[in-house]
Design brief:
The chain is an alpha+beta fold. It has one domain: Jelly Rolls (Sandwich), CATH 2.60.120. The protein is built from two helices and five strands; from the N terminus they run H-E-E-E-H-E-E. The relative contact order is 0.35. The N terminus is likely disordered.
Length: 94
Amino acid sequence: MAEEILSRSIDFQGGLTGCRMIAGTIAVTGAFQAFIVNADCEVDQVIDNKGIDITADLGVVGQTIRQGMLISAAKDHYFTSIRLVSGSVIAYFP
């Protein structure tokens, strides 16, 4: 398990092609590998590349996610839409 997490972390760091700041309550669309919480936030909805709402699967429904936390898509997947209730995140392109 630890090796898988380390491998995923290295893949994430090595494969970034840019980022976008997301704040406010309007859904932001794109292709995002992961997001890091810039200011404590609450997530309203995350949609994956198959068009599925995966907010509950990520375990973030009704949760305040603290600054600095990393939320990443599963291997070979990405987020296509992120909508916040509050706070801000920096979303990274694959």
